[in-house]
């Protein structure tokens, strides 16, 4: 089965990504909160990727992928498929590179994320809200225009870019016992787990996944990519499925996937807004939710949590009564 | 008239304050946003005091005042009057010093700020919602208990502590043309203007004040403390009046007070949440609102803005329809 796995990124690719994105990406702050430490019963280190450009860690991978391409490869523009943060990140990276971008967006994607893609000057092309329709629309575009596809997570350069989150985190907090990152398609978790286990082999790395979109958990258990589950979760950024490449990296470097229900995510999100004073989207709050749902596992430990994004519609907060 | 002004802090007091609070206070991040720069037409540097301990710059002054006192002075505890952030900051500083604190709170103070005071272990004493009642209740407490009063802004050590905001800001952004800070009682503005004008004499310093609580603006125009205006503003942290001490410092170091209406404050607050991904309270957003209301004044300049606090009731956001 491993024969079918496309080339995996190595630690050196993450170091190269860090150098490549340095002129463009932010080194995001690592914040702490004594009151959240008290609530959690452990020492929390929050990597604030909600403060990354375009409002999510996705800019790291998109920027690395777009700037890794040679001029010929980008001459006909960049294409991707995304219902959210990767689309805006790719649009920004393309604008910085000076090449046109098109983002295939499924019907039903959050309006605020569509607006962010458009604000970066990318063209939006709609498709039906299924993975098959997204892939078909993207393939058609690539064929028709000759544009270069940068997949949201099934891409070696994208994964290497996401891994730079862990480089910065462990540089500032070298004594971490545990690293927690959200998992959707697995780009962030595979990149950060590769970096973290290389820099600090004894660290424990968990993915945090919505209980209503538990395909990564199932995929690791069964040893194959489960792609036919229907996602039901408030975490709009975590509805993707693993690809063989991200599954292979998770199998090597991740110690477990922790499942969290949506109510716990909403409560953790509110706690981050109240205590850390940070606007974090549901997908970004799931790491803290995973800790609070299983305090004993983390008791007394040094825990790094990736707050992956902050793009949220302020008129539709999960704790507001539905109008 | 100057004969009646109590002792003013000097720049050295601010340097001493920085050293005194260093073990306890956070050096807060200075954040930037290209999209907000584009909207404003100038270069904005946001000093994130919403990320300070207790969620506001107030901890700097309270911490400096409480730790400047000798053991005898604090032996019977600390007292203050506050409807909000100073109360929580003083309560936290007192807890760190290991002395009991009592906060006199007017009826009608925001519930979330009361909860923050109680969470730090301070005793709360209620009084009628007038400045006279607050002062009377505080005086009575001091007489009865022998506790030491730390005024929210009319206090040399408190002002010196607030001034440390500008030390950090100018250390990280030494080329600022303009500094903007909110003004209520004037503790933050007087301390930061003293520090900024000492470090960088050519800098322009503005206070930003709600149009519905424009007593500082009127006081500077008339050259005396106006204390009989009724405040009507969403900026609950900016309803106080200047004291002779803060007025004297503002007369020396501040170039003007910019008035901003509440709608502009709410819009700026939402923009900070959306673009900077920061939870900022209305009082903390008024600096950005002042820039956006008067773009020509700031065009092309390097502008430092103090985001003074982030303590806000997430169920009562100013852009939500009233229930």
From TrEMBL, chains A, B:
Give the record's keywords alphabetically. Magnesium, Pyridoxal phosphate
Cofactor(s) needed, names only, are: Mn(2+); Mg(2+); pyridoxal 5'-phosphate; Ca(2+)
Tryptophan synthase beta chain-like PALP domain location is 22-309
- What InterPro entries has UniProt attached to this entry? Ser/Thr_deHydtase_PyrdxlP-BS, TrpB-like_PALP, TrpB-like_PALP_sf
- Protein name per its UniProtKB record: Pyridoxal-phosphate dependent enzyme
Q: What species is given as this protein's source?
A: Lysobacter brunescens
The root-end lineage is: Bacteria, Pseudomonadati, Pseudomonadota, Gammaproteobacteria, Lysobacterales
């Amino acid at each position: 089965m491993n024969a079918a796995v496309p080339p995996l990124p190595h630690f050196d690719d993450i170091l190269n990504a860090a150098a490549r994105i340095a002129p463009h990406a932010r080194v995001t702050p690592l914040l702490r909160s004594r009151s959240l430490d008290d609530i959690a019963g452990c020492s929390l280190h929050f990597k604030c990727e909600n403060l990354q450009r375009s409002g999510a860690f996705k800019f790291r991978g998109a920027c690395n992928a777009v700037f890794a391409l040679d001029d010929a490869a980008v001459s006909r523009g960049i294409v991707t498929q995304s219902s959210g943060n990767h689309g805006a990140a790719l649009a920004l990276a393309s604008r910085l590179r000076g090449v046109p971008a098109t983002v295939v967006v499924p019907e039903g994607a959050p309006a605020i994320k569509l607006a962010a893609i458009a604000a970066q000057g990318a063209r939006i092309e709609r498709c039906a809200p299924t993975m098959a329709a997204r892939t078909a629309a993207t393939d058609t575009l690539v064929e028709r225009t000759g544009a270069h596809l940068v997949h949201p997570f099934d891409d070696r350069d994208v994964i290497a870019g996401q891994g730079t989150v862990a480089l910065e985190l462990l540089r500032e907090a070298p004594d971490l016992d545990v690293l927690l990152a959200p998992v959707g398609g697995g780009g962030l978790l595979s990149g950060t787990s590769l970096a973290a286990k290389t820099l600090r082999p004894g660290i424990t790395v968990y993915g945090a996944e919505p209980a209503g979109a538990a395909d990564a958990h199932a995929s690791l258990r069964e040893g194959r990519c489960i792609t036919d589950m229907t996602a039901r979760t408030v975490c709009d950024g975590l509805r993707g499925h693993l690809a063989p490449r991200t599954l292979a990296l998770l199998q090597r470097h991740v110690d477990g996937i922790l499942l969290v229900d949506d109510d716990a995510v909403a409560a953790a999100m509110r706690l981050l807004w109240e205590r850390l004073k940070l606007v974090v989207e549901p997908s970004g709050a799931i790491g803290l939710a995973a800790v609070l749902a299983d305090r004993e596992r983390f008791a007394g430990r040094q825990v790094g949590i990736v707050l992956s994004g902050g793009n949220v519609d302020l008129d539709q907060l999960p704790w507001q009564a539905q109008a």
